[in-house]
Amino acid sequence: MTERFSDLKKVPREPAMRLLAAKRIKLATPLKAPANAPVETVLEELGAQQAWVCILRMLSAALPEREAVWWACLAARDICGDGPLTPSLKAAEAWVFEPNDANREKVQIAIDTADADDDTVLAATAALYAPGSLGIGDLAQMAAPPGAVAACAFGMNMTTLGSAADPMLQMQLIIDRAVSVARGGNGKVDKITEPPAPEPIAVEGDL
């Protein structure tokens, strides 16, 4: 047992399978853990199998909605790099800091006016759906799709892998960020978990 996924105080004290089912998320990696296993146990098993994408799916299901939006915002900042923050990201972050209808309306405006190639719109979409409905006003009476926030947060983080100089290091970073947020932190990581060493390539004639 490692300490990488311990002390996730923000994660609901429910079985991991229940959280996954509630958000319509399935893991591709078979598990030996019992159906009532907590999130930490499932994450440990997935980590032992180096099932990184499934770990991201589990974390996206386990994080509360507002925390998942912040995780997505951190990934969106990776996309922006040294350039200016996009309107989508600015609006999403403003909603995280003050989750009210006024900021949610700004999120909707940012989504409606976003450039077609703005990947950070996923962070804004997560913020829009986080309160549980499709928007404000009349849309507040219509429930958001189950797992919409988790899907947007997962997608936003996966998007960062395409532009990363070292995708495996980036994978460990976005996992570590989610763990930090799940522990009640701000997602900033001082030291990234060391990526696993690549498997040796078999050469014909090796014993």
Broad structural category = mainly alpha
Dominant shape: globular
The end-to-end distance, rounded to whole angstroms, is 32 Å
Residues in β-strands, percent: under 5%
Look at the structure and give the mean pLDDT. Answer: 93
Fraction of residues in helix:
40-55%
The H-and-E topology, N to C, reads as HHHHHHHHH
For the biggest sheet, the summary is: none
Radius of gyration, in angstroms, nearest whole number = 18 Å
Number of strands: 0
Q: How many domains in all?
A: 2
**Count of alpha/pi helices:** 9
Poorly predicted spans: none
Fold and architecture overview:
The protein has 207 residues and is mainly α. It folds into two domains: 16-63 and 165-182, no CATH class; 65-160, no CATH class. The chain contains nine helices and no strands. It has helices spanning 16-22, 39-48, 52-62, 65-80, 87-97, 101-112, 121-129, 148-159, 167-182. Helix 4 (65-80) packs antiparallel against helix 7 (121-129). The longest helix has 16 residues, at 65-80. The radius of gyration is 18 Å and the shape is globular. The model has no long low-confidence stretch (mean pLDDT 93). Residues 187-207 are annotated as: Disordered. This is Secreted protein. Pfam families: DUF6931 (PF22011).
How do the helices and strands line up, and which of them pair or pack?
Blueprint: H1 16-22, H2 39-48, H3 52-62, H4 65-80, H5 87-97, H6 101-112, H7 121-129, H8 148-159, H9 167-182
